[in-house]
Amino acid sequence: EKPGLELAVVSVPSYACQRHTPLLHHNITLTDALSILAENAELGENEGRGVAFRRAAALLKSLPQEVRGAEQLRGLPCLGEHSLRVIKEVLEDGVSLEVETTTHSEQFKAMKALTGIFGVGAKTADRWFREGIHTPSDLQRSGHTLNRAQRAGLQYYDELNLPVTKSEAVAIGQIVERAVHAVLPGAEITLIGGFRRGKQTGHDVDFLITHPDEGREEGLMPKVVSWLEAQGFLLYQKTTGNSYLESKEGPARPASNMDRFERCFSIFRLSTDNEGREIQTGREIQTGREIQTGDGPQTYSPTLTNTDPHTHSDSPHPLPQTLVVVGDHAQKVSWVLGHSQCSGPRSWRAVRVDLVVSPYSQFAFALLGWTGSKLFERELRRWAVHEKAMTLSSHALYDRKRTQYLRASSEEEIFAHLGLEYIPPCDRNA
Ligand code: DGT
Ligand code: MG
Q1: Predicted ipTM?
Q2: Residues 32, 93, 138, 204: which is the catalytic one?
Q3: Closest CA relative to residue 315, chosen from 290, 279, 344
Q4: For 316-327, what is each residue's pLDDT tens digit?
Q5: DSSP state, residue 428
Q6: Closest-lying ligand 1 atom to the alpha carbon of residue 206
Q7: 97-104 vs 81-93: helix crossing angle, rounded to 10
Q8: Closest to 28 (Cα-Cα) out of 66, 56, 54
Q9: Which domains does the chain have, with CATH numbers?
């Protein structure tokens, strides 16, 4: 008896944006294997191959039950020959030789380690790899000239490769909200990216900012950044202004997937202390209360430490008030921080944060475009072009047959324009 043979007759639509893809699904072993191969293809700048593996993985993520035998996959879309071979191998042997070889290969490990440095892409990593640089330490020793982003990436390497938790994302959100409201009351801040899809951890925290009065949002980013910088919240930032005006093509041309929003790539300095902490102008006072960590209660005795060299007590700027992150994650953070280059453990960590400002009229498109997943976005655009003769971007939706832009003030309206069933953020984890 073959359990679940009925999977084969279930009809599954071929675009990921037509399917519900929850965060938790039934085929983790298979999707992990395919994701490794996708990642390897992407690191080798073989985008087409990467997408093929991602599509196959996304299909498996959307299935209502565990796949136990390859015969259950008959008639399902998105499964290319190569992906099917890998899936069969994993189903039969528990592992795929190609996946094992990949994960153990020096090149894959080095490329992952090097692209794990903020500001380093596949091209640069590959050049370094071929010079014999395999790790961030090798890079540090090499004496290569690095740009500002890469220097920050190297400096905060361990921390930035530590997952950001939901509670950390919420704490960052509170800071961003204070910053934005200080410079533009009435502005709206939305948590986007993976956290909006229900993920409990992420590699960064993404926010979309807008204001109901169109135009009020213009020039907002530099002001927000100044506020954050003055308060000592930023370890690094690079802000790009919007470029709607420079572009003569109109907002939704497919030539470039690059957004033209005001945007800030940053590294935040987030306090990681548990409860019982106050910060006073550059020094912190811990009150010695019991705190809960992964290993059970520990008592932190009162200490007086300098929190940060760049926020001295004679700083003209007010310092962050109590911003507290609680959770079992704190212990892992302190482990990394305790081993970092600074003298002694510290009570803050570096977190990657992306801020995007959108005009109100483009908000729904920006929200849809920045919620992800990356494959879900790609599939939406592919659906729009190939099935509807429309062009979708994070700015607009253009109907090429009617030669007009289609307005929308909600994600639901965009799905409707596209002739798609509405898929909520939690089911966009393709
Ligand atoms: P994470 O951060 O690794 O946990 O996962 P995500 O899904 O938050 O991924 P992330 O932060 O790289 O990007 C969030 C979404 O924003 C992603 O699905 C696509 C979109 N996105 C990111 N960068 C760009 C960009 O430069 N242009 C456009 N149009 N969208 C972008
Ligand atoms: Mg993200």
Answers
A1: 0.97
A2: 204
A3: 279
A4: 333 333 344 445
A5: B
A6: 11
A7: 90
A8: 66
A9: 5-102 (1.10.150.110), 108-155 (1.10.150.20), 160-362 (3.30.460.10), 363-427 (3.30.210.10)
